[in-house]
Amino acid sequence: MPNNKTTVNLFKSLEIMSKSNVLSNKPIVKAHPETGAVITYFESEKGETYGKVRVDQRTPVVNNGYMSFANRSAFITMDEKTAKEMESILQEEQPYPIAGKVVVTESLTPFYDGQEPKTKGADGDVITHQGRPVYRDTQFVFDLEAVDTLLKSDRDSDSATEDETPE
Fold this sequence. Notes:
By secondary structure, this protein is an alpha+beta fold. It is built from 3 helices and 8 strands, in the order H-E-E-E-E-H-E-E-E-E-H.
């Protein structure tokens, strides 16, 4: 039977974990690295003004039975009126005020014109699935039950199975 000190330490640990941004399912608002602005405004080709907010999230992932955390970023685009309303709500390095998550989608076709395929590292080989290049997109979604859509790379198909321990 645990003593009172053990029980208190366990509750303190659980309290710290519950306050952790890693475990909160709330992406963190990031400021523009050059301007310091939380919302970056831009004009579309049609002359309409929009605002973008970057959110980062550390998400637990499991690969071949091993858990780790993956860093993910997404941009939330909103019309100018909504962006102006959000200016007083959003704060740098604080959780995005609406529950959601960053979801990854991979495809064999680009998500936008000029998109480069996914590579292994910054200067690595292009990742392929069934011999075709893989394209990756991240989106912030409100659906906390949404799941990633990932393609198994040809390299992974040739490597260890789930029953084997990676080196």
